[in-house]
Design a protein that fits this description.
Layout (H helix, E strand, L loop, with lengths): L1 H19 L4 H8 L4 H10 L6 H15 L5 H9 L1 H10 L2 H17 L1 H10 L3 H14 L10 H15 L3 H7 L2 H10 L7 E5 L2 E5 L4 H14 L1
Antiparallel strand pairs: 1-2
């Protein structure tokens, strides 16, 4: 009972930190002052404990998003160490967990693009990974309430991959990403404009509309 209570309190604390760092670069900088904080999050992801992995992934994503240029070399190495686990998770998980993991993967790709490419190519999962992104995009023409941002994080992943390595466009074309992007363009949802929901009300509107992400992805597909 005590152990369960301890697990719950840690999870709640992690969720609170994830919320506090969602929109605040300043809070991210404060969190990074904790010694070995990135390393601790890495361990939470690698121990395969469902109680912590997605909270840790949300926190890592926020830190990469808001404090990417503040990450030190040891921090970047810790990110590189979890890449294989993150990529494999994307193949296996569904729903809200998938949205969180792809969100982290896309920011790792943007933060350490060479490491991302090396892991994707060296691990020989590039084709499975690309197909997975296209399949999930096609399966979510009406994103559910539990993962309203799933298409947004996939589009960001696609964009960051092609911005870092134009050759990915060929692989996306092979799996008909252009057609999938056209479907997204035709089925845009107002719910995809918000980060959080309380009932039916959306809060924290994204600065970049999802339509702009579709346009950018199509540009990269055509240019490459």
């Amino acid at each position: 009972m005590i152990a369960n209570a301890d697990h719950l309190s840690r999870k709640v604390a992690g969720q609170a930190l994830a919320m506090l760092t969602t929109e605040s670069a300043q809070n991210c900088l404060i969190v990074l002052q904790e010694p070995d904080f990135i390393k601790k999050l890495k361990h939470m992801i690698l121990i395969h404990d469902g109680k912590y992995i997605y909270v840790a992934a949300s926190l890592l994503r926020n830190l990469c998003l808001h404090s990417r240029h503040e990450l030190r070399e040891p921090d970047l190495k810790e990110l590189s160490h979890i890449l294989r686990e993150v990529l494999e998770k994307i193949i296996d998980v569904e729903g809200a967990e998938l949205e969180i993991i792809i969100g982290l993967s896309s920011l790792i790709c943007k933060t350490i693009p060479q490491d991302f490419t090396q892991e994707l190519e060296g691990g020989q999962i590039k084709r499975r990974f690309v197909k997975r992104l296209v399949d999930v995009l096609n399966a979510n023409t009406e994103p559910g309430a539990n993962c309203p941002g799933i298409r947004r994080v996939i589009l960001e992943q696609v964009i960051y991959m092609m911005e870092s390595n134009y050759r990915y466009a060929d692989c996306f074309n092979e799996f008909r990403m252009t057609e999938a992007l056209s479907v997204v363009e035709q089925t845009l949802s107002h719910a995809e404009s918000y980060k959080f929901f309380l009932g039916d009300a959306g809060f924290m509107e994204y600065n970049t509309p999802i339509s702009a992400l579709v346009v950018r992805a199509k540009e990269l597909m055509c240019c490459n």
